[in-house]
Design brief:
diphosphomevalonate decarboxylase activity; Ribosomal Protein S5, domain 2; alpha+beta; 4-stranded antiparallel sheet
Amino acid sequence: MKQSAKAKAHTNIALIKYWGKKDPELFLPMNSSLSLTLDEFYTETSVEFNTDIEKDCFILNHEEQSEKETQKISRFLDLFRQEIGCTTPIHVSSQNFVPTAAGLASSASAFAALGAAMNSITGMNMDLSTLSTYVRRGSGSATRSLYGGFVEWQMGDCNENSLAVPVDDASWDIAMITVAVNTKQKTISSREGMQLTVETSNFYPSWIESATKDLKDIKQAIHTKDFEQVGLITEANGMKMHGTMLGALPPFTYMEPLSLEVLAKVREIRGQGWQCYFTMDAGPNVKILCRQSEAEAIQTLLKKAFPNNPVIISKVGGGVELI
């Protein structure tokens, strides 16, 4: 074991969405998913064994967290401590360079970084594939933040085979633009929204069938580097996921009026000849898949249309790393 370790992980944006769990304890998803890792948004987390404290301490963005939040982190730390027969309290200090709980996948980078740091400090030194089965227990999408580029989270049917695998390094002129519509905390968490959708939406079975086909098709498009097809599949898949929520009881949506305005603007920009395709996760913010070579021009058009909202370009991000 080491005394301390620190890791950095980037967030990812799902192009083929994961929406719904078939096992809420193991975080086994109802469908496989595929994402793009981004370099602009990330989390840095340090962990330290500390015999001077009686229980775990969790500092997030320089503020000590509540007992409830700390217990959530402690349960995750126990996955690693139990493997090495350790009960020593751990001091966790994490900084998100991502707006927390705003649909920008901060939990993915957070648990990926925490898992990588724990993998190092405990001396377990698992490969990334095995580590992904651990970080999944903190946040499902964290599996995908362990790798860079395009990453698939294979749903599996048990703890050992629900894991992330790299698909492509996305080094072929790809970027993503985020239009931050609202970076405040969501009123309906992703977990609550998922559960309500799975349990009550009549649209949900069709979503699973459609998402399975979308994943197969987008992997083929990535293999042939067919950017237009990747974009079209991404856009359709995201809107289908949001459609399942409108079929829930009661119906709900993460979209805000400004979100719809951004979607319309992206369609308009695409009509002018720029290659850009939108997607949205469980939040009001809009992400736009585009060519890196065209990103600044598209950003300029979006800033002109939405001068009061951050419009952020992100290049393709790399995998988790110790720092």
